[in-house]
Amino acid sequence: MTDPVEWAGFVLSLAMVYCNIRQIHWGWPLAIASSILYGYVFWNTQLYGQAALQMMFIAMAAWGWRQWLRGQTLTEPSTETNSAQALPISLLRRHERLRLSGVTILVWVLCTWVLEEFSESKVLYWDALITALALLGQYLLGRKKIETWWVWLVVNILTIALMASQDLWLTALLYFVFAVLSVVGLKTWQKQDVH
After folding, report:
1. Domain boundary assignment for the chain
2. Whole-prediction pTM value?
3. Left, alpha or beta for 130 (phi > 0: left; psi -120 to 50: alpha)?
4. What pLDDT, in 10s, does the model give residues 77-112?
5. Residues 31/110, Cβ–Cβ less than 8 Å
6. CA 36, CA 129: separation in Å to the nearest integer?
7. In 45-123, which ranges are continuous DSSP H helix?
8. φ, ψ for residue 121 (rounded to 5)?
9. In angstroms, rounded to a whole number, what is the distance separating the alpha carbons of residues 74 and 112?
10. SS3 helix, strand, coil % of the chain, rounded to 5?
11. d(C-alpha 88, C-alpha 72), whole Å
């Protein structure tokens, strides 16, 4: 029988992704709520990397919500005239891709070490890789970088297999839906005016 907490996380997560695709900032508080629920589910199934990731998602969702509400790029100074403008969808520059790739590899190594030292995880390399990539995806989403959808597609495909290996079938189904929505999100954002 599926845990009601998992069901609630499932529903809130779908609503969150819908808001992200439509660029509705209310997706961020939904992300916080679903992360709290999934943190509980993952902790109880000894997916400690995924549980810790949910706590990081809460902090990053608060940051992402602020980014979307503030509506300015990293290079713009904060002024009253530009603070009401929506943060534009943009592409990563080559140097940003290289830097973020390096940081993601370091985070993967660090997460692997932490799981090896402090948990009984049986899937620590896999769990750590998904954690590192999901943090990258969350950062890119907060900055409205179109590459976020490619990263989330990879994360979702890897997570389907991880959840299935732990008999979390509803969550595996959720990540299958997320994988489809990653493609929808990519196509939707590509139709926007990309900077």
Report:
1. 4-72+91-190
2. 0.80
3. alpha
4. 444 444 446 788 999 999 999 999 999 999 999 989
5. no
6. 21
7. 48-70, 94-118
8. -55, 135
9. 31
10. 75, 0, 25
11. 8
